[in-house]
Write a structure and sequence with these properties.
Shape: globular
Radius of gyration: 27 Å
Strand order of the largest sheet: 5-14-13-6-12
Order of helices and strands: HHHEHEHHHEHEHEHEEEHEHEHHHEEHEE
Oligomer: single chain
Number of strands: 14
Largest sheet: 5 strands, mixed
């Protein structure tokens, strides 16, 4: 046996010791929980966790791999909390309350103390729909939103030991209440009117309260950034309702524009091309380039990309992918600049932040204009570019007011209405 084999055997022995110790430790945690229950002792003892951290700090002082060992112990503590949570709550905890009632505070507490997963229903729905809750209401109506809530509650039946945070309107549906109680304990959070008013009072940091006010774009974006309080870098979305009728071919509004400051997203671009066009796409940084082989791959289910560009001579074959690409908004289109002889430029533009805008059935355009972390100045440059492009794309057949309304919102933020007079239509 050589030295390397000896070291590996020693490492394996260490793993065996660690595994046995972890199993024993978890069993002891369960025994401690049982003892506390049997003797009526307080379940939560934060001072004990503080002692453990102090002990570890002393033991690892001046030693190598201090940070790595600390990370491992943090994972061990987190899993101990999960064991405690499963012992205490073998069901979901459903929190209900209107804005300001304290759902976030309670959710964060349970997450920190028991390492429980938290499901913010509004946040998940907004992420899946790609627009803020206020815009879901405006675009599709309350019925549509309530159906999304019900479907998500049904989905949660497959999980346990989760904190589910719901809006105050969720229990208005009897079927929602039934779903909540199947695998959960429902907690209604209330607060005095004065407390709620203090938390969500009408001030200039809460533009949602001033629903009828419109803001100049710069001021609106400053407010947008201030209200982006989620724990992720929220996308800033623009929703524009136009005075056109998308049912008529001569009133379609569609195009593409490159955002000067990009979208904040790493755009995955692939190209279907041959010869020099394929080489140009590769040089521009396309994730994958091919012709018939790539078409077959996509037909087989490959969809790990955001933008597909191709050349006019390949569209006859790419067109066969319409049923796969069309519903996902991935079908190349000359108006969007994704069907072009210059695929190298198309790839470069897409990666630089080129976005496509088009009307939906409600005559609304939905586009991202960046991330909240961009700051108001960069966001304004992007937003102004999009608004100017939409203004120039006004169909000759459009009559009356072109910009009916324009709203910006972060993924989880309130809708802020824009003053569109600057764009003159």
């Amino acid at each position: 046996m050589n030295q390397l084999e000896i070291l590996r055997e020693s490492l394996g022995q260490c793993d065996e010791i660690i595994l046995d110790a972890l199993i024993m430790r978890n069993r002891i945690v369960e025994d401690i929980m049982a003892y506390k229950e049997a003797n009526g002792l307080q379940i939560l003892q934060p001072e004990q966790e503080a002692k453990q951290k102090e002990w570890l700090e002393k033991r690892m002082e001046g030693r190598r791999h201090k940070d790595e060992v600390s990370d491992v112990f943090e994972c061990i503590r987190t899993n101990s909390k999960r064991i405690q949570a499963r012992k205490l709550f073998n069901y979901n905890i459903v929190l209900i309350g209107f804005m300001g009632a304290g759902k976030s505070t309670i959710s964060d507490f349970l997450k920190n103390v028991f390492a429980m997963d938290v499901v913010e229903m509004d946040q998940i729905i907004a992420q899946r729909q790609g627009m803020s809750i206020s815009d879901i209401f405006e675009t599709y109506g309350e019925q549509y939103f309530r159906d999304l809530e019900t479907n998500l509650l049904i989905e949660m039946q497959s999980r346990s030991n989760v904190v589910i945070s719901c809006g105050g309107g969720t229990p208005m549906r009897e079927c929602n209440v039934v779903e909540m109680k199947k695998n959960g304990r429902v907690v209604l959070l209330t607060a005095k009117p004065e407390t709620i008013l203090d938390r969500v009072k009408n001030n200039h940091d809460r533009p949602l309260i001033e629903n009828n006010k419109t803001y100049d774009p710069t001021e609106a974006l400053e407010l947008c950034c201030k209200t982006a309080t989620a724990k992720f870098d929220e996308t800033v979305e623009l929703h524009v309702r136009l005075g056109v009728d998308s049912r008529h071919a001569d009133q379609q509004v569609r195009g593409a524009v490159v955002l000067p400051n990009g979208t904040g997203k790493n755009v995955r671009v692939i190209a279907i091309a041959k010869g020099d066009a394929a080489k140009a796409a590769e040089a521009a940084g396309a994730q994958e380039v091919g012709d018939d082989d790539l078409i077959a791959k996509i037909a087989g289910g490959y969809l790990d990309f955001d933008v597909l560009v191709t050349t006019p001579d390949m569209m006859g074959r790419v067109g066969r992918l319409g049923k796969v690409l069309g519903p996902r908004g991935l079908m190349p289109n000359p108006k969007a600049g994704t069907v072009t002889p210059d695929v190298g430029k198309a790839v470069t533009d897409a990666k630089a932040g080129k976005i496509e805008y088009r009307l939906d059935k409600q005559n609304i355009i939905h586009v991202p204009v960046g991330k909240a972390s961009f700051g108001a100045e960069k966001l304004y440059t992007n937003l102004d570019t999009v608004m100017e492009a939409i203004a120039k794309a006004k169909p000759a057949a459009a009559k009356g007011t072109y910009f009916k309304s324009a709203t910006i919102a972060t993924t989880m933020g309130p809708g802020i209405r824009l003053n569109t007079l600057k764009y003159g239509v």
